[in-house]
User: Fold this.
Amino acid sequence: MRSRRLRQSLLVAVLFSLPLGIAADEPAFESDDAEAIIVAMNVERAAEGLEPLHWNRELSEAANDRVRDMFEQGYFAHVAPDGTSPFVWIDRHGYSYHDAGENLAVGYGGQEVVDGWMHSPGHRANILGRNFSDVGIAIAQGSPDRKHRGPLIVALYGGRYGNPAARLSSVEGERDHARHTERSQ
Assistant:
């Protein structure tokens, strides 16, 4: 309890010491923290008896393009102002999936972002998704909409066809896809 309060106090102190997010013309991508985020997500998955997520190049490229699009169009949302969903970016990079999901964050990094996601039902469902085996992470400094503090983090999750963990009946698969689509709006 005491360590939790201390951690929360430190997080608040850090957040208030950061300058307001300033969107850059070009996002500065960071990959060093991506591995730490994947490790933190896999710790949460292991605690639930789930297989680890594996870094995936196609999903990471899709996540990087999502970040670029957010900076170009100046938004922070699951659906772009032009109506483009995160699944379009995944499709464009050739990742053939049974299930897909997205987590977004701005203003947090490393373990703090995973802790925040774990306290949000939709984000938690993506981290602990039994049908997800792959993840791609993109991190950029700054805020694409100038309303938030950076860094911006995009995590795209996927479960490929043929993945034993993603074997669902077609009805379950359609329902789950609809749930992920609804969550991303």
Observations:
- The first strand starts at residue 54 and ends at 55.
